[in-house]
Amino acid sequence: MKKIVITFCLAFALLLANGYSYAASDRTMQAKINSKRIVAGTRFNLELLNDTNTAKDDAGSSFDAALTDDIKVDDIVMLPIGTVVRGMISNVQPPRRLSRGAVLYIDFDHVVSPEGKQLPISAALADIKNITVDGGVIGGGNYGYAFKQNAKQSGDIIMTCTDWGIDVGKDKLGGYLQYITTPIAFFGGAIGGGAYLIGESFVDLFRKGEDVVLPKGTDFSILLLKDLDVPVIY
Questions:
Q1: Least confident of 33-37, 70-74, 164-168, 203-207
Q2: What's the CA gap between 231 and 114, in Å, rounded?
Q3: For the domain 35-141+212-233, what is the CATH superfamily, name and number?
Q4: What distance lies between CA 156 and its chain's CA centroid?
Q5: What residues does each domain of the chain span?
Q6: Among 118, 129, 134, 138, which residue is least crowded by beta carbons within 10 Å?
C-alpha cells in the first residue's frame, strides 16, 4: 500500500512539472513571436520565375514569382526582395476564331515568409500587359487589332513603292522622270497594299488568335485583397 501511494505521488509531481514546463514554454513563445499586418490594397511588385504559356499550361499548373521590392510595415521589412509568391492557373480560354486571343486566369496561393512559413494570400493582378476587365491576361489582340495591323502593313507597302518610284526617277532626265515613276509606283503600291489588306482581313475572320506567353522574368504587380499577417520574431 505504501509503494502505491509513493508511486502515485511521484506520477502526480511529474505531471505538475510537465504542465508548468509547457505553460512556461508557451509564455516564452508568446513573448518572442508576434505578427504585423500588411493591409489590403498593398501592391506587390513581382518577377515571374518560370515561363507560362497557354499553349502548354493548363488549369492547375503552378507558377512562382519573386518580390522585386521590400514590403515594409512601420519601416520594418516584413517581406524582403526575393520573397517567393506561389500561385496556380485557375482557367485557360484557348485562342478562338476572329483572331481572338487566348485568355489566362491565375490565382495566388501563398507567400513564403522569411521563416519559411507558407502564408495564405488573397490577391489580384493589378499591372500586367494585356489585362482584361475581369482580371485575365489576353493573348495578341482580336479582329479589330488584326485589322489595324493589316492596315498598317498595307500603308507600309504603299510607302515603300512610292519611295522606290522617287529613287528610280530622281537621277534620270534631270530628275523629271520621278514625276512619272512616282505616281506609277504609288498606284502599284495602292493596288498591292489594298489586296494585302482585303486578303489578310478575310483570312483573319477564320484565323485563331495568339496564345498568352509570359516568359520568365516578366514584371507585373498584384494588389492584396485581404490583410496579410506576417510573423515577427523579437
A1: 203-207
A2: 9
A3: Type IV secretion system, VirB10/TraB/TrbI (2.40.128.260)
A4: 33
A5: 35-141+212-233, 143-204
A6: 134
